[in-house]
Design a protein that fits this description.
The complex is a heterodimer of chains A (about 260) and B (about 475).
Chain A (H helix, E strand, L loop, with lengths): L7 E10 L2 E11 L4 E5 L6 H9 L5 E8 L2 E2 L5 H7 L1 E4 L6 E5 H13 L5 H15 L9 E2 L5 H15 L3 E5 L7 H14 L5 E6 L12 E6 L2 E6 L2 H9 L18
Parallel strand pairs in A: 3-10, 3-11, 6-9, 9-10
Antiparallel strand pairs in A: 1-2, 1-4, 4-5, 7-8, 11-12
Helix pairs in contact in A: 4-5, 5-6
Chain B lengths: L1 H17 L8 E4 L6 H11 L3 H16 L8 H4 L11 E3 L12 H9 L2 H8 L2 E6 L2 E7 L1 H5 L3 E4 H7 L1 H7 L10 H9 L4 E5 L9 E6 L6 E2 L2 E6 L4 E9 L7 E3 L2 E6 L4 E8 L5 E11 L4 E8 L4 E4 L2 E4 L5 E10 L4 E10 L5 E11 L3 E10 L7 E11 L4 E10 L5 E10 L2 H8 L5 H17 L4 H15 L5
Parallel strand pairs in B: 3-7, 6-9, 7-10, 8-11, 9-12, 10-13, 11-14, 12-14, 13-15, 14-16, 14-17, 15-18, 16-19, 17-19, 18-20, 19-21, 20-22, 21-23, 22-24
Antiparallel strand pairs in B: 1-2, 3-4, 5-6
The chains are: A alpha/beta (about 260), B alpha/beta (about 475).
């Protein structure tokens, strides 16, 4: 593999939901070892983009999506996941009756393409639990069922640690976290990130960027990336808000999906 | 949708291979189709019964003939039952054996394929295996026998312990209760008779397995379980049948009596082939401080109508019905529970879960009654239905009849569609669509499965997995 191949790219990605275009052409290259932040106001279409990149069946997507130079658009979400894509959900979904442990073993086995032996799995799970400060009793709880917002987010990042993705899309991972949880979750992301994989943080606030420092910041408004810069761009947004970057074409009352 | 069609076609392939096979008919007795007093008399004669039972049968036939078909439930399917096209009594060659070696080979092979002797060796305290109308094999652990535990087929029970049978037979479910209880009473054969002496704990389950082999068969087993004061017993039943293009009828009557402080758990894994009408009456009497639990799993049959009931007759008695129904293509699972609080400070819980897939249909029909004198009762009802696919259907018919004010009632009913978001979440972590769907369904039935002995939980999970294979949401 050529070292210059981006770990993740999109080319002219457009996303429509029920005939309405939400994402209007996105180009992006995340190089190995990079962390990117995609920042934008509520309703700009960030979450739609994240879910569409992962292959959500409700979205019509055009354009090219590549993981390490290989086309993944057109593949089912589980195929993308097994190739190494990961989407951390803003609202992780509950699956009552399925314990965290049995779920984690199933997804880990899926990612690796073979059943992970129980003992090996236990060891890895225990280590990840310790890393994220998740209490042991969570292994027997039902997946995301009755979890607080913070607990859900910890479990998302715990999965990122265990699944070792090539490229992780993290959708509003910071929302609903108090400062302590934010620190723990951020440390988890930093730990899961290494010189050969990539991360795209999708966020409304600059807060998490103090802990997970991005190399590249994109400003996303009305379905497009309107500005790309370095880490300092996040600081600028913090100080000035988003309005100064708004393209003239954005109508104030226009509806969009987040 | 081509995938759905593939799935519909696929399900029964496996059933036929695993359960739906049949033996060549080799019978000692096969009464001609149809039911009249002559047939009832013939059954009674073969069994050389006491006159009082003979009389009960003939009366029951009259009641059956005079009672109309139910005017509720799935009347369209009920209307398909042709009572003249059914054999009401069939007995295979050979006598009841206490060793599998003495069971005719083809029948032994059948139960081998169904895993009955294996289960017996591994974790059961006693087994009866019924083939057509008669029990062909029966065993009970010696230590239990020494303690005075009685476990045998109902015919032997009547022969060997007529006093106990006469005292309790038909006291929980009178002949007249409904058309199908009358039918069963007229032509019953086989089933289990269990008596557990006072303060005796049968801590390992007893099991009965019911097998239909012939086409157009009517199986009418009769079960009576009496747990004397302070005793406990767990009874498990399973059933399967060959897949035929014509219908068979299974209509059982099961009466449970839990005397003071006794405990009965009755577990059913019903896996009839899709050409069996399963119309069953099950009821228990729970006396003072007694606990009765029905754990009722319905996977098979064309139409099941079954509402296990508990009459809480004594103070502080507790009743539970935990049921799961799985309705696939062409199936209607009309199941539920009845809880009658007839004494003060009695408590009950009903948990009903159903899964409907393809054009399958499940109904929950439940009734909770609290009589006027039954103060301080508590009851909790929870119904969950899961729909897979747009053609699946679920209905809930809850009835509450509360005549006492000091009662705590909780009722919850939920219907959920297998959510796209759940599937997407699980798929985004690498599980295939099928794996994701199966995980959601397994989670849904988990509260039921965890009440089963481990071996049955494994089997149930496997069955569900087969039913879910390649299904399309």
């Amino acid at each position: 593999m050529n070292a210059k191949t981006p770990v993740f790219s999109c080319r002219g990605v457009r996303v429509s939901v029920e005939g309405k275009e939400i994402v209007k052409g996105v180009d992006l290259d995340v190089m190995p070892g990079e962390k990117h932040a995609l920042m934008g106001p509520n309703g700009s279409g960030k979450s739609t983009l994240a879910a569409a990149l992962m292959g959500h069946p409700a979205y019509e997507v055009s354009g090219e999506i590549l993981l390490r130079g290989e086309r993944v658009d057109g593949l089912a979400p589980d195929e993308r996941a097994r190739m190494g894509m990961f989407l951390g959900f803003q609202y992780p979904v509950a699956v009552p009756g399925v314990t965290v442990a049995s779920y984690l073993r199933a997804v880990l086995s899926a990612r690796r393409g073979a059943d992970v032996p129980v003992r090996e799995f236990r060891k890895e799970m225990d280590a990840a639990f310790a890393e994220l400060g998740v209490r042991k009793e969570f292994v027997t709880r039902y997946l995301n069922d009755g979890f607080s917002g913070g607990e859900k987010k910890r479990l998302e990042i715990l999965q990122m640690l265990m699944l070792k993705p090539e490229f992780a899309l993290l959708d509003e991972t910071d929302s609903g976290l108090d400062i302590d949880a934010l620190k723990v979750v951020s440390e988890g992301i930093n730990k899961a990130h290494h010189a050969d994989n990539g991360v795209l943080l999708v966020t409304h606030y600059q807060r998490i960027l103090d802990y997970v420092k991005p190399d590249v910041v994109h400003v996303f408004m009305d379905g497009r990336i309107v500005r790309t810069g370095g880490f300092e761009l996040a600081g600028e947004l913090e100080a000035k808000g988003y309005d100064w970057l708004a393209p003239a074409t954005v109508g104030a009352g226009e509806e969009a999906t987040s | 949708m081509s995938n759905a069609q593939k799935n519909i076609a696929g399900i029964r392939d496996d059933y036929t291979a695993r359960y739906g096979f049949h033996n060549v008919e080799d019978y000692m007795t096969k009464l001609p189709k149809g039911l009249d007093h002559g047939v009832v008399e013939a059954i009674s004669q073969k069994k050389q019964e006491p006159a009082w039972m003979n009389e009960i049968r003939h009366q029951a036939l009259d009641i059956f003939l005079e009672k109309p078909m139910p005017t509720w439930g799935n009347m369209e399917l009920l209307g398909q039952i042709d009572f003249d096209d059914i054999h009401y009594y069939i007995k295979a060659k050979g006598e009841q054996a206490r060793s599998w070696d003495d069971v005719p080979e083809d029948i032994k092979n059948t139960f081998d394929r169904l895993g009955v002797p294996e289960a017996e060796r591994k974790f059961l305290a006693g087994v009866t295996a019924q083939y057509e109308s008669e029990v062909v094999y029966h065993s009970i652990r010696e230590d239990l026998e020494k303690l005075g535990v009685l476990f045998m087929d109902m015919d032997s029970g009547l022969r060997e312990h007529p006093d106990i049978v006469k005292k309790y037979f038909g006291t929980v479910i009178p002949t007249r209760d409904n058309k199908f209880s009358a039918l069963n009473t007229a032509c019953w054969s086989g089933g289990s008779f269990i008596y557990v002496p006072p303060h005796t704990k049968v801590d390992i389950p007893l099991q009965a397995y019911f097998r239909i082999n012939a086409e157009n068969m009517g199986q009418f087993e009769r079960t009576l379980i009496i747990a004397d004061e302070g005793s406990s017993v767990h009874y498990i039943e399973g059933c399967t049948a060959p897949t035929y293009s014509s219908d068979s009828l299974h209509s059982a009557v099961v009466e449970l009596i839990a005397l003071k402080d006794a405990r009965i758990r009755y577990t059913t894994i019903q896996n009839w082939s899709n050409n069996v009408f399963n119309l069953v009456t099950k009821r228990a009497h729970a006396h003072e401080g007694a606990v009765v639990e029905w754990v009722d799993g319905n996977i098979g049959s064309k139409l099941t109508m079954k509402y296990p009931a508990i009459v809480l007759k004594g103070e502080r008695a507790h009743g539970e019905v935990l049921s799961i129904a799985f309705a696939g293509h062409g199936q209607h699972q009309d199941a539920g529970a009845k809880m009658i609080h007839a004494a003060p400070n009695t408590t009950s819980r009903i948990v009903s879960k159903s899964i409907s897939k393809d054009d399958g249909r499940s109904s929950y029909r439940g009734m909770v009654v609290v009589t006027k004198k039954a103060h301080g009762c508590k009851t909790n009802v929870e119904c969950d239905a899961l729909l897979i696919g747009d053609a699946a259907r679920s209905d809930t018919y809850p009835t509450m009849d509360i005549a006492n004010e000091s009662v705590q009632v909780e009722h919850e009913a939920r219907v959920s569609k297998l959510a796209e978001e759940q599937l997407f979440y699980l798929q985004s972590r690498g599980l295939t669509e099928d794996q994701a769907r199966l995980m959601v369904v397994n989670g849904f039935i988990e509260p039921f499965v965890k009440e089963l002995p481990m071996e049955y939980a494994v089997e149930l999970n496997r069955l569900i997995e087969l039913e879910m294979e390649g299904s399309v949401g």
